[in-house]
Every structure is written in C-alpha cells, then in structure tokens.
Amino acid sequence: MKILQTPARFYPHVGGVESYVYNLSRELVKIGHDLSVICANEPNAGDEVVDGVKVKRLGYVGKIANTNITPKLPYAIWKEDFDVIHTHLPTPWSADWSAVISKVKEKPLVLTYHNNIIGSGFASQIANIYRRTMMKFVLGKADKIIVTNKKQLKFSPFLGGYAEKVKIIPPGVDTKKFKPLKVEKEENSVFFLSVLDRFHEYKGLEHLLRALKIVKNEINDVKLTVGGGGELTEHYKGIAHQLGLKDNVDFIGQIAESELVKQYNMSELFVLPSTSPAQEGFGIVLLEAMACGVPVVTTDIVGMAEEIEKENAGIVITPTDAESLADAIVIGLENKKNGKNARRLAERYNWRIIAKNISEVYSSIS
Fold first, then answer.
1. How far apart are CA 211 and CA 243, in angstroms?
2. What is the mean pLDDT of residues 98-114?
3. pTM summary value
4. Domains of the chain in sequence order
5. Quick one: how far is CA 322 from the chain centroid?
6. d(CA 56, CA 46)
7. Tell me, what's the pLDDT at 122?
8. Nearest-5° Cα angle at 351, 345 to 354
C-alpha cells in the first residue's frame, strides 16, 4: 500500500511528532508498505531516502504557531500517488491541505491527534477560530482518528463528536536502539529532555528547577542535565542561576543521536513534569528512558502514567506541585531498583507492534 505522511517536519528534526512519524514510517516500510513523506525543509536536508522512506522537503516562508508555512505543499500533495494519506495535529497547515486534497482525490485520510491546539493571548484567539473552522473540517474528513491514549478523549473537548472514528494506539519505542548499556551511572543524576521554546513550556522545566532547589537541601550534589535547545534556553538558565543552582544544572543543548542513548543510561532518573493535559499527548521520552532501564518521575496527565505506577517503573505525581516533585526525585534517586521494571514496561511498546496496528487501520479504510 502507498502511504503518504504529511508532518510539519521530519527526521533529523528533533521533536515528539517527528520521532513518531520517523519510527512509524520505517517500520511500515519493513512490513511492505511504500512510504513517502512531504514536509518542510527544516533542517536544511533536501530530498532524500531515509531508511526506505522517500522524503520530499519543501521550502517554507515562516512559521505560525510552530507550523512551517510551505506554499508548495498543496501542489506537492496533489502530484503524489498514494492510497492513504496520514496527517497529524497540532500542526494545522499540513493537516488542512491533506484533508482538502484527500477529499478532492477521494482518498482515505488518517489523522493522528497528538494533542490539542491552544495558545495564549492573541494566539489563543487564532487557535479558537481555527478549532471552529478548519480543525472541524479535518476531524470530519478523517476516516480514522488515532489518539495515543484514552486520556485524550477525556481532556480534549474537540474529539467527543468523533468517538466512533477514534482508535487508541500508543506510540512506540525502538527497543533495539534504546537499551541498557554498560556505562557508569553519574551519582544523583537527573535527566530532562525537551525543546526549550514557548510551545513546550508545558513540559514543566521551570517547575523542575524549582523542585531541584528543594532537593538540594537533602542531596547537595544532585545534578540535573537538561537536553534540548530553543529560544527559552537563556530564560531557564537565568531561573537556575536565581535559584542558586548554577553548579547543579548543566544545559547541554541538542544531543547528537549517537549520544542520546548513552545520556539516558548515564542518568539515575529521568523526569518529565508535564503541566498541561490539553497539550501533553503521551511523552515519548518516557518510553526512551525506560527502554534504557532508567526509572522515571512524571505527572498523572501523561499517557502512560497509570502503567508506570502499576508496574513500579517510576513515580507519578500531580502537576505543578514542587514539593511533591522534589519528594519524588529524592525517593527516585534513593531507590535504584526500578530500572528492570521500566525496561519490561517499555518492551510492550515496540514500534514493530505499533506499526502493525496502524497498518490494520489503513487496511480497514482503503
């Protein structure tokens, strides 16, 4: 089957949706599908074939709400020969044109609804207009809507009218790549990974920094490594400095793919203190950390919070509670026995299994 994926960006761009599309696409190739991707040329990589996935990158004229505006996208999709088009929200431009052209060409559309589209200030007004117009069209046109966890149906006020089309399929993790290594752990080390921009403030880094100040009272040499970059990097560095954490926090920027697994393995604990149920979909980085045998601390809004708690693979707390987050970090650093539980839980989410489930979705509508 010929599948066309239309994310805003694609590997080697770093991000949750980009990781989802990359890993899903290459696994779909392995089981016999013909995969193409049309996306923005960010980073500047040009057209190429990546692990059997044909990637066409388009020039863009700027961004609106973290979405690249690619003027040639409608024509590029129209020219493409596909049996099913698979698009993604919350990146409107790509999803909108995918829905329009799938309707005109009478081809089935699959939408993965990663999280809600929201904003603040003027952006909130724009988001509200979009939700009442084009997003309703995209949701209505989609033959199947994939959500990554059942909580999205609870927290999203926009999916209720489309429940009969919704299929719950979680994201996966490459358990051959992300695995325990024989490397020395850094004592009292905590790892956080995200894009450090205003669109990802909900990942909770500021709350983590404030919790770390409390942790320092009990574990003076606690060390937080912050991976990822963005326009808020200096803002977060300023907060760390104000809190007296200059020697306890290391901002290492973008992490090369070849070094990421090692960084997970060197850490004793991975923390993702997400704050917004409307924006947090699943938390793929939690899967990556656990696949490396690293226990996690996260909040009860992430997609796999219940399983993490049930399988004793980490600690789950309520969002925006610095005291509870600090207590969880201290307990997590003192209890170093949950790594095997974390790895066992991650193995249930092998991308090979996830790709087969999504392949069945394609077959059901084509």
1. 10
2. 96
3. 0.84
4. 2-172+351-365 (3.40.50.2000), 189-348 (3.40.50.2000)
5. 23
6. 7
7. 52
8. 90
